[in-house]
Amino acid sequence: MTLAIVLAAGSPAASLPTGTGEALADRLAAQWRRAGVSEVRVAADLDELAELAGRADGPVLVSGADLVAHTAVLRHLVTSPVGPTVALVLTDPPAGGRTAVREERGQVVDAGPPERLDGAATGVFGGAVRVGRDDVPALVAAARAVAAGRPPGGAVAVDRTPAEATDRIGPGGPAEAGPRPCATAADAAAGAVVDQVFAGLSAQGALVFAHRVRLLVAHRVDDAAGLARVEAAVAGMDEDRAELRLSVKEKDDFFTTYFVSTWSPQVTRATARLGLSPTAVTMLSVVFAVAAAALFATGGRPALVAGAVLLYLGFVLDCVDGQLARYTRNFSAWGGWLDTMADRAKEYLVYAGLGWGATAAGLRYGWALAIAAMTLQTVRHMTDAWYGVLHDEAARRPKDVGAGGAAGGGIGDRLNAASNRVQADSGSVSYWLKRTVVFPIGERWALIALAAALFDQRIALLAVLTWGVLAFGYTGALRTLRARWMWVPVLDTVDATLHRDDGPLAVRLPVLRRPGPLVLAVVAALGAAALLLAALLTGGADGGTVGLRWAVPVALLVLLVGAAGAGAAHNGPLDWLVPAALRAAEYLFAIAVGVIGGAPAWLIFGYVFVLTLHHYDLVARLEKRQPAPPLHAATLGWEGRSALLALTAIAGFVSVGLATLGIYLLVLFVASVVLAWFVQPARAVRVPAGTGGRATR
Fold first, then answer.
1. SS3 helix, strand, coil % of the chain, rounded to 5?
2. pTM given for the model
3. Residue 105: what pLDDT?
4. Structurally, what CATH architecture does the domain formed by 249-363+401-484 represent?
5. Which residues of 46-57 are buried (b: 16+ CB within 10 A; e: fewer)?
6. 42 Cβ partners below 8 Å, 6+ apart?
């Protein structure tokens, strides 16, 4: 149940008559109801606000009575999927005691008077905030502090244990525990009441995400003249048309922006009128991708051209499902998870179709290229996900903490500043080059479609691999330098055992605290790579290498060096790379064992594909801050699975081992999905207040 509280205190505009004759506060309350809020109350003062919020059993929306906006703006705030606590942020200049905010990566990292911000203001508080259940105690404490005349960012008692304060996790990692020194008693006296409460909430350490208003109208007014101007602006805009345009991402990749989003909104509107859900569109895009993969596997110029067209249309639908979710405000945790998993599964099925078709056409190394493309792309995605977590966490850390605890100014700091300047220059040549060189999904699918239609399956895979390697090198080098500037112990803020994917063997091995978990993981990956290289040089990718069986246990011992870092502290400046290094180690070892054992290339691809499903599930849960899959313990861990494959290589039945272990993991994956999303949905959503868990969209 969602509660909206319109705070009339401290707002002279609350009683202003609107164009319909009702008071502004009353009209705002009616708008909250139309926006989908379960209960709406008007609070006369802060004590009443604190009492109402304290009794709430769900999210609480708080707004001043001076906000004039499209109802869609309020609906977007109510349904925003970016995080539990979200504030409306406007581009208006700070005036009349309004609280200025500074944002980084969509997070409000500072709030207060402009002259007291740690850095330049990026916007102004829009007078409305949605407070997640876990942050409601901080809201109550901030309201009571402002009512009592205490500094809203001071040491206010909040009903939260120290462990819970440390475990305040959002999509980018835990927030800095404790109050932020950004609001003082003087600030409280100068600001509007709702602004004081928001500044106090931010100062309490609540992780607040920013919801910026685009296209639609939202302003705060002080007098009748201002009210009339904003009402005229609201009436003069087509709300539905603006919402359709808002369904398209503000900043997307080059191919998506110019070759998809120019016409996909019309498809989005049509699917909405047909009553299709975003999940239904996602599944339809899977059908298109599977059909494209089948045509690529069939071969022949007509089939390749038809496959390219279907792949493009499938990508359009892949964009439409998100646009439809934003247009209809139909968000769900299940839909977000499914979209993430479907994107990767579709892409890798297309790789399989290309590999199959190349092999059937008599082209060498078709399956080998498909396996390499899938492995490279998965490891790239692991670094993308963990770098994102690192960057989000660094954004809300004090800026005077850099590598080694020193202030910024090094090469990483300069690279970060340069990147921010390019990002701000939206639409420039440098901006599009930066967006394109990293090889995002739109560019990958476009390259596959063009290369397959104009040439053949092998050229398509080679093109993906070549660009992928260059993009990996570019992003890896720059991110490594920037990460040393940000230096945040990301893996110390989450369950490192879960996201390393360690099993029972790793947790029982002796812990090597030196030279550090990243070095150990890289050693494991290099050992697996050496085994694969030896297998390819000795027997090639198309046949077994029985003579190398003796090398498998040796490589396994090297692999287990990575497992010996499981219990070590993951607080180095580059330890965010550990999960990706371990993924590379497991995949390369499995491929090497398959080659040595003479397993069919399609079987090796299938086994690694199942591993990617398992690991992308962990990444999706990391981004949504959800617990481990229900049957995660039964997956044996990366080192346990590798040890079993080594035994099959020594015994001489690698194909049987790959097939059996792959089917076992696939069954566990499907069972975990059913348990997590269908059998136990209530348990996943009803998280006890104050535990730090989130039921995010």
1. 65, 10, 30
2. 0.88
3. 86
4. Up-down Bundle (1.20)
5. bebbbebbbebe
6. 5, 6, 8, 25, 26, 29, 65
